[in-house]
Amino acid sequence: MSHASSPAAESPPVEAPMGLLMELTHRCPLRCPYCSNPVELQRAGEEMDTATWKRVLGEAAALGILQVHFSGGEPTARKDLPDLVRHAAGLGLYTNLITSGVLLDGASLAVLADAGLDHVQLSFQDVEVESAERIGGMPGAQARKLALAGQVTAAGLPLTLNFVVHRQNLDRLPQMIDLGLELGAGRIEVAHVQYYGWSLMNRDALLPSRAQLDAATATVEAARARLKGRMVIDYVPPDYYAARPKACMGGWARRFMNISPAGLALPCHAAETLPGFDWPSVATGSLAAAWYDSEAFNRYRGTAWMPEPCQGCERREVDWGGCRCQAFALTGDAGRTDPACALSPDHGVMLAAVRARGEVPAEFIYRQYGPAKTVPVDGTQVR
Ligand code: SF4
Ligand code: FES
């Protein structure tokens, strides 16, 4: 589907988004220090109601969106999740649940399966129980996750395991892959931490070494060859050791749309923290208007906005200039070339962060509502 509205006369027509990430809530029992939610978390009273989310789902289907990801926070904290899944399935949308798994059991999963859920993506913080529960900040979480994985496959639902990897768990990547096989996952996503918001505050606790990264890359390559046809391994490498950036979200406002709990439409999960934007609300306006007509979505769409060196670069329609949120986080200007690119005049800030990486990980600043607190790496006390 295309639309007449486009940011510049010479630009190609804007295509409909492929996927919609619905962040139903920021509430979550876990406290991961790399959480992709904004540092200022929205509270339950600010969340959109069931009827409004259903209306958004209807607009998504009409817009040509194919996949809906129910996310959070922890989306199963919303009592109306089965109702929303049933509504989405009835509209012909492919439904994926992105969950930490700690609030679900066999019975509540069966309700979701009956509602038409197509896929479950279950996150793990580590394979080693003590480490996993320290990183997630929730005692008892690992057993619940392991139990849920069994219930997902028993229900006949496809399962993806998600591991966010960093200096404090990356050495156990081979065991993570083994766990994926053991639990019957068809896919495992190994994603290095991307540094904005909570994770940027925790960069010194999370940034791996070059040696750790090289070992992980070799592990992934060997496992992909060994497990071909049995399990897919998606791998998101870390920007801090890259020479070229990733095409964040497949390019700004090109393929994906996020909706925050309060109904702000965003081109990615971190955009809400960018200053100087008037984000469109789907609580008061339509999804189509947000996608096609809003200044916020059109600002960095395509290539016309790009500064040099992107403007003259042959990769400008490959990586779309990298990540706007990372450019803002590291340079204070979301319109600059992503510093992950070695051609960026700001690439030095990334190299400097790697050089400044301490031998000992910094204390975690856990995700939470209100003022942030730090915790030593052994997790024994809160300051
Ligand atoms: Fe990508 Fe811009 Fe770097 Fe070229 S200069 S590789 S378009 S970030
Ligand atoms: Fe926002 Fe990359 S996370 S553009």
TrEMBL record:
Its EC number is 1.21.98.4. Pathway: Cofactor biosynthesis; pyrroloquinoline quinone biosynthesis. Transmembrane segments: none annotated. [4Fe-4S] cluster binds at residues 28, 32, 35. Gene3D superfamilies: Aldolase class I. The keyword 4Fe-4S applies. Binds 1 [4Fe-4S] cluster. The cluster is coordinated with 3 cysteines and an exchangeable S-adenosyl-L-methionine. One of its GO terms (molecular function) is iron ion binding. It catalyses: [PQQ precursor protein] + S-adenosyl-L-methionine = E-Y cross-linked-[PQQ precursor protein] + 5'-deoxyadenosine + L-methionine + H(+). It comes from the Bacteria. Residues 14-230 form the Radical SAM core domain. Its cofactor is [4Fe-4S] cluster. GO terms for biological process: molybdopterin cofactor biosynthetic process; pyrroloquinoline quinone biosynthetic process. It holds the Pfam family Radical_SAM. Interacts with PqqD. The interaction is necessary for activity of PqqE. PANTHER family: PQQA PEPTIDE CYCLASE, RADICAL SAM DOMAIN PROTEIN. Catalyzes the cross-linking of a glutamate residue and a tyrosine residue in the PqqA protein as part of the biosynthesis of pyrroloquinoline quinone (PQQ). Belongs to the radical SAM superfamily. PqqE family. This is PqqA peptide cyclase. It comes from Nitrospirillum viridazoti CBAmc. The gene is pqqE.
